[in-house]
Each structure stands twice: as structure tokens, then as C-alpha cells.
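Ligand: pyridoxal-5'-phosphate. Inputs:
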Amino acid sequence: MSLANGRPYLAIPGPSVIPDRVLRAMHRGSPNIYEGPLIEMVASLWPDLRTLAGTTGHVAMYIGNGHAGWEAANANLYSRGDKALVLAVGQFGLSWANSARAMGIEVEVLDFGKSSPADMGRVEAALRADLRHEIKAVLTTHVDTASTIKTDIPALRAAMDAAGHPALLAVDCIASLGCDEFRMDDWGVDVMVAACQKGLMTPPGLAFVWFSEAARLRCDKGDLATPYWAWGPRAEAEEFWQLWNGTAPTTHLYGLREALDMLREEGLPQVWARHRALAGAVWAAFDCWSAGNPAIGMNVADPACRGTSVTAARFGAPHATRLRDWCETKAGVTLGIGLGMAPSTDPAYHGYLRVGHMGHVNAHMTLGALAVMEAGLAALDIPHGPDALSAAAGVVARALR
Ligand SMILES: *Cc1c(COP(=O)(O)O)cnc(C)c1O
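Predicted complex:
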């Protein structure tokens, strides 16, 4: 017996749920890419993309996923042999470091483990130790989607300033843009990377790099940027094709236009508040479940250090996998796998899972996913504390009072 028929819900940290409005906007034949409505529509994207990031700087768009966004940033930030300082608080920071290393960049990783926020004192010390200012840029994730740790970007900027180090600051907001508050210019961020399939609610396929004028000037003479990755022509194209160094991602652009309209209609502060409230509901449920079973627990202890778009939690192997399977096959909710959390001897990620609550999500989706998890815990006889659902509902009620 299964109760999974009905509209399924993909509650993973990307790709996220695609709104019907976005799907409808994309349902069209190939448009003319030389002149006409597509070109006019694309011109309207730039101001909204800047507003979304909180910047008056430049934006380059690429056909690609988040990994492409990393390579785009690397290719423009560095020359071969340049040095990068990477703050890693989970798998995604480490992966960005690997991508830089593979491109011939010398990478120093400050690894803070997988459950603790970055220690800005260590960052400042590492920068102070770089007496010859060889570090060209500091790379970090805003929210590392594997550990779900949120990095305090203003605190990082303050540490860089305190060290008096001129390195550029580049931030991966792939899991947080359109979910968690982010203010590129106010926070002193020089380069920001995102992709369209998480908070931006569009099918995977577009990557973005925002960059300040200062970053553009500093990186002008880099020798890593091939014609495809160079951000300059993409941000200041004279011809439409130069925006993508080839054919435009036509259909995706219509989807993105619609998604940006949705974000603008709701208003960014309200979008951030919605994610905070829904995350609060998820965290309240986990607090109750863990109270009855210490093997269950959110990966990040301090709520202030958690991203609001995704929650990672341990359930004790193999319960995470059992629960995910149950939720999907019995109740139509797909939860995310644990990523990069298990020791390498563990063949899979049976002890961790992630609940996505990013993008096109509302109270009934998040409360429904939690109720399904509660049913799964009961059906599978996984010990857990009581009252998770009323606690989650209480958070929603208080947010709306
Ligand atoms: C999803 C994600 C990535 C990778 O994006 P892909 O589209 O899977 O390549 C990188 N960084 C963060 C923080 C992410 O959430």
C-alpha cells in the first residue's frame, strides 16, 4: 500500500520546485535570436539580477550549473599560479577549492570541519601571515548546502579589513540567493556566484557571476579566462550573441524572467522572511524529534549559523536512508541525501539526510513534508521525541500572527 499518488514534492536542496508560472513561461517554440521580443526581454533581466544580489556592479550569465559558475569565477579572478584562500565549512567549499586547484591556482584551504562556522580569527591570521599579499582572492560559500552552515559574510569582510589585506572576496550564493538575506555591495563582496535552480526556481542550466568594477579592473590582465569564460563581453556585450559567447539559452531566459517577476512581486524582504519562518518550523520539529533520541540531530547546533534554505540532519545509519525511501515511495515526498558528511568508509550516506526548503515553498509544503517524516519515523519504528508537528505549526502560527 502506498499513499504517494498525487502531486509529488521534491524537497531536496536543488533543483527546487519549479512554479507553474515558470513552466508556462518556458512552454514556447524557439524565438528569433537576432531581433525582436527575446532581445527586449533579456534587456529587462539585468536590473532585476542586480537588485537580487544587492549590487550596482556587473553580471555575466553562462549556460551551466553551479560548477560552471565556480569555473567562471576562477577563470576571471586568477592567473595561473595565483593564490586563493578558501574557507571550507562543508563539501561545497572543498569542491570550489578543487575546481580552482585543477585550473592551476595555488589553493590554501582553511578547513573548519563540517559542523562549525568559520573562525574569522583564523582567517584574519592567515591573511596577516601572507606578508607579500600573494592571496589574490578569498573564496567562500554563503550557505554550504552539504553541511548547511551559513557563513557570516560581513564578519568575513571585517576580518579581511582588519588584516589590511587587499584580496578580493568571492562568495558562492548558489544555495542562498533568493532565500537568505544577501547584500553584495553593503557587505563588501567583490564577486558572487549563483545558479538558477535553487532559490531562483528555474530548471538547472543558468549560472551567474556578479562582479564589482573594482574586481573587473583588478582582474583585467588575468591569463585564465578563455573566450568562453571571460566575463567582460558577457556583461557589456555589443551584440546579443556575445552575452553567451554563442547561442542564448532562450527558453531558460523566459523561465528566469518569470521567476524574477515572482520574486519582485513578493518582495525580497518577504522572501527572506518566508524562508526564515519555514526553516524555523523545520528546526522546531527536529528539536522535538532529537529530544527523544539523541541519534537524531541537526548538523549545525547554532540556529544563527544555519542557512534557511536547507537543513542537514543525522538520523543514525541506516535510518536516514530508510526514512528517505519511505517518504518517497509511501508518501510522495523526496528528501535530499546526506552529502559529504559520512566518513569515507561509509559506502553511502545512510546516516544523514537533508530537507530542502528553498524557492517555491510555502507553509503547507513544509508542514506537509514534516508530517510525512513524522509518519515515516512512526512506521519505521525509529525512536523520536513527540510533539514535532505541533511545534512546527506553532512556529508558522507565530510568524503569521
Ligand atoms: C548546488 C550548489 C553548488 C553546485 O551547483 P550545481 O548546479 O550542482 O553544479 C555549488 N555550491 C552550492 C553552495 C550549492 O548549493
